[in-house]
Amino acid sequence: MLYERYGSARLEELGFGDGPYAPFPKAEDRAAWRSISSEKRESWLRLTERYADYGWPVLRVSDYRAYWTSGDLSRLSLAYFERRSVLGILVIAECMEGEGKYLDQILNGIFAICEETTWVFPGHRSHWKEFDKEESIPSETEFGVELATVETARLLLWTRYLLGSKFDAISPRLNERIVRETKDRMLKPYLEHDDYWWQGFTPGERVNNWNPWCNGPVLAGFLLIEEDPDIRKAGIAKVMRSLDAFIATYPADGCCDEGPSYWSAAAGGLYECLEMLSLASQGRFDIFGEQIVKDIGAYMPKVHIHGDYYVAFADCDAKASPGGGGVYRYGLSTGDESLVRLGASLPPSGDPSTRIWFNLYGYTRDLFVEKERLAQRMKAPYMRDAWFGVTQVMTAREREGTEQGLYVAAKGGNNEEAHNHNDVGSFLVFADGYPLLVDLGTEEYKAQTFSSRRYELWYLQSQYHNLPTVRGVLQRNGGRYKARGAAYAQQDGRSELKMDIANAYPEEAGIASWERTVRLDRDGVAAVTVTDAFAMKDEAPAEMFHSLVTPCETIIGGEGSGEIRLTYAPGKQALIRYDAEHLRTRIEKIEHMESRLRRNWGDRMYRIVLEERQPVAAGERTIAVTLDRG
After folding, report:
1. Angle at CA 390, nearest 5°, toward 427 and 210?
2. Out of 180, 387, 475, 540, which could bridge 422 as a Cys pair, Cβ 3.0 to 4.6 Å?
3. What is the CA radius of gyration of the chain?
4. CB 487 within 8 A of CB 502
5. Which CATH number fits domain 2-375: 1.20.120, 1.10.287, 1.10.10, 1.50.10?
């Protein structure tokens, strides 16, 4: 799409390199930087005070090696990401203050990072053939283009763009060092390689958020520091071809199957690339009218529940922070009112020191649209219904335009999706914007997460999703384990998704058919019902149980009542009704909550287990969720 329309034959017409590429004001434009609200300026400068005497932490070889010895990334991560966040914070503070107060510390940070033996994160070294996969000691000659490298390069590139004139006044060696390190570690290997899996040049390789995430800083490098017009042209053309591979393999319904917390890197990364190409060509590059580009952006308002809660399946976090500025700009570029409204409704960016990655381009672009964005005073659109037919994801809320009432989302799909969990047929339910029945998400990434033992991790297994377990057999990972016959129906009073999930389980489960229907009824007393109609092969009775995962305090009704009460907010309860004649209930506490799960849900979760009282060969079971309005 990009290369076909704007490829090598037309790149010269776009004028890349003909004039200054200035997507936002540099530090010397004092009028522009003074135009930022005093509140925003003061918040950044207050944040920066804690780093006035910052001691740049050492990156220890023993911490790098820990990935191989124990699978632990946390010890290296703390120092590695902190260095970069602090540098980014100091750079923006210097642009705001403008009097050189933070320059010495900025120079310290630049040289600390430039002198690192490698920018490559240990778990990413195995992605290309030159690296010895068994070697735990980094080499100063091993360069590869992966997430940590490109994020580091992006930070240095935009630091040079913003403060380059101040650096030159001190010594030309400062800018020269940034240019040399960025070219050696990112631009040169990018041009030399077609075999990075994320580039999309390997037939049959499905790319994910890595593609635009990596291509964005690479593109910035060719636009900002490459002076040779032939190399610049070759680099931009290659980025276009790589982005085409990302767009071509993206679900045609626009659904980010990696989830909302990855949308900023996937769709947001794509938008950043398209925005840079548009700005650098003075608007001559424009692909925002393409339907797939529009649909990729439109995903976010369709899966927004309330506040920072989004529809989250697989590795995705339940709480996402997509960044209001990027969402808002994407909506303006594609003419999507719902995306604009969502972007305008989001709060200002939070404390950047709490983020893993410090996107200096994104933060700075946002600063110069923040006043306009927040002045809109828009409310999130709270879309009533959405259906992603390719990915097989349904969302529905009781009433459009408000978080009040019931909200349900359900998925079919398969068990070989990006950041996959074994969760075909799972669903989630919210009430008044609060979580009732949820998808847990994932813990902090570690070596096992990306190994052959991935599905030994408990939170990836179907028994810790809102799904049945039959004969003790769980869903299996792989593309053949999928939903069949997924059918979506929607009318004013009802939205539902019906599918057969039997094929998501291996043969030993002995399931002939398992038709699951997830439905929201709006008429009368609103209710979410989940109905399972199942049959075993050869009519062989099977032991089975149904799992429901909740963060809510849970009370089981008396024996035979068929009721469970969930307290989802002070003074607010939901009621789950089930078939007590056939099912007995127990509650299990999930107390082994590590840091990433705790950030989303707190210290404890619960699994409601609805267990068949006796083995059964066929049947129909329904749970119904309503809100206690009395």
Report:
1. 90
2. 475
3. 26
4. no
5. 1.50.10
